[in-house]
Amino acid sequence: MDMLSATLGRVKPSPTIAVTTKAAELKAEGRDVIGLGAGEPDFDTPDHIKDAAKAAIDAGKTKYTAPDGIPELKQAICAKFKRDNGLDYTPKQVSVGTGGKQILYNALMATLNPGDEVIIPAPYWVSYPDMVLLGGGEPVVVECGIEQGFKMTPKQLNDAITPKTKWLIFNSPSNPTGAGYTREELKALTDVLVHHPHVLIMTDDMYEHLRFGDFEFTTPAQVEPELYDRTLTCNGVSKAYSMTGWRIGYAAGPEWLIGAMRKIQSQSTSNPCSISQWAAVEALNGPQEFLQDWCRSFERRRDLVVSELNQCKGITCPTPDGAFYVYPSIAELIGMVSPAGTAIDSDEAFATALLEEEGVAVVFGAAFGLSPAFRVSYATSEAALTEAMTRIKRFCAGCS
């Protein structure tokens, strides 16, 4: 007798976690491995945020809280949305979860019925389709290739919408490509959505503050106020504030949806860690100036990685607008053989051979829904990146 749920058979483990785990296992065996798979800043959580957590512990703020967040954090989130995005929300419109992933998951679980469709532009974050499948919905993947800057066009969006469409999941700057939509590009998409009132919009703005050059971040409800009542604007403190392990994500949207998400959370994890919530209050309300320094560091790393990868045989690497990823194409390497004789018949084969032969861990493009490519996270030291680029260049040069 099969003891597992049939729903579980619809999903697969996270490929990014698998790559990070494999790299850690090889390191434990004594291999010299450079991990470029994890989407995690190498900076420490700022001291003022850590101090706020310590103060919360000392003050005894270690008990259960409301299932979806303390009032102080909800107020800080409302202030953040007003300050950064010009969006007005009340605490009743805010949900706080144990990481951004739970926020997205709660919303999908609270709204999806069998047969509901969710539009997901590809390349996409690996968890989007599987969360849709867990919720009983059907992912509708829209491929957005390198030739269009990894960004969905208004025509593609319009063509993907059907009477069964429940959600569009939108992510800018993107994981895995770092591509960001300009205000004009976003307005063209929201113009399409205005004409389809049955479609909800889920915006994953996790990389909002990690942007480079003159790229201006905007979010759909900000660009098109008519979409305000059917948009869930999602964010968190993990990437911008280097608080990945603190597990705090949040979202704001219509009260009916936030209430449904609260019900889901009250019967699953209940409240996020109380200490992490108080740390997040300080993250959102406290000094923000350090973000500029971090962005400058990431931009230097981006420029290093893009320059080096574009010098590699068979690799084409666009320059991203934000986040801390690049998504280079390896179309010219498909069909070749690695230096050690492995057939490169897919981007997964490329990534496996690169790890085994040169000790560089990257995530293959098929995990993100668009091949042949791979993702590099440059959220690590310039010294490690320089050595990794040397190894990748040597690997590619030896392919034939």
Mean pLDDT: 96
The CATH class of the largest domain is identified as Alpha Beta
What's the end-to-end separation, in Å? Answer: 49 Å
> Which fold name is given in CATH as the topology of the largest domain?
Aspartate Aminotransferase, domain 2
Q: How many beta-strand segments?
A: 12
CATH architecture of the largest domain: 3-Layer(aba) Sandwich
Low-confidence stretches: none
Secondary structure: helix percent: 25-40%
Over all CA atoms, what is the radius of gyration?
21 Å
- Overall number of structural domains: 2
Number of helices: 13
Content of β-strand? 5-15%
- Which descriptor suits the 3D outline? globular
Largest sheet: 7 strands, mixed
Structural class: alpha/beta
Strand order of the largest sheet: 2-8-7-6-5-3-4
Order of helices and strands: HEHHEHEHEHEHEHEEHHHEHEEEH
CATH superfamily of the largest domain: Type I PLP-dependent aspartate aminotransferase-like (Major domain)
